[in-house]
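Running this now, will post back.
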Amino acid sequence: MRLFGAMKAGYALFVAVLIAVQCVTGQSKAALENFETQLKPLMDTMVAGKTDNLRFNANEKFINLLEEVLSYPKTFRYPFERLTHIKILSPQDERFRIYTWNIVNDFGEYENYGFVQSQHKENKDMQVFRLHDRSEDIPNPEEAKLDDSLWFGAVYYDIITTKYEDVTFYTLLGWDGKDIYSQRKVIEPISIKNSNGKPTFGASIFYKEKERKRYIFEYSPTASFLLRYDCQFSEKVSTKKIKRKGKMQIVSDTIRKRQDMIVYDSLESMFVGFEALPQYNVGLYNVNGFRFEGNKWRRAEGVLPRNKPDKVKDRINDDPTKNTDRSNVKQEDGRIF
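Update: finished.
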């Protein structure tokens, strides 16, 4: 009976994929909307299903259907507006598109999933790469260069496009719910190979940190931690000697400028002696930053957060799952970033 049931389910999935392929081949807006209608209930089940079995079975069907349809060119700009649990990002030059989402199991552990969709520059064929989350199997993940088969999983909520001379750089900001003990955010460089569209995650683009490929921040699941690309002030104080009234004096000169940068909190343990346990880390509201200069992300000194609170952007944790049940350790509603 179980074998018959599995065969029946497999046949049903084959038929669904076949129908989807036939619909998308036409690539009309109506066909794409019809396909999205098939995906929507699967997404709802994988998010709100009452058991692991329901959620992960729906997720596997969702993956198979989505992977098939993404191979068709017109899906590259289709918004998939009804798939609200899926984060879809594309850089300014539309070199690729990245889809990420997560499923939480009964033990409170988050598993991340995704695809990278890129278009061949010459023949315009679509390349689709399924991302395989291997976060817990990667030794020294901040120093590892990764790809679609070995991915430090996260749900990406922002993509930054920067240029130096004729080279374009892409940097992702992402969130990983991890488990009931801690959560993580990541600064993740990504590049796309011109030959086959294959994604590479991680790059040596952090100034004076040749071995580093990405930044990973791990902290308490009940803490607030800001990681965002924003236009902010920074200031640098320089000193010089000048001669006044026949005497040499040291004077200070403050240079203040405003520019786009990645801003993030400092992390510190809530308890003395627990510094090695990231589940006790919380943000200090001491803001740090990275500015893109030349072909590197360089630390910005003296970041002065001046932006007014924004109820949408400053949602606690910038959690892409929109889970506002998580509370801020300091119980603060707004942030001046």
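Residues 1-11, 13-21, 308-337 have pLDDT under 50 and may be disordered. More later if anyone needs it.
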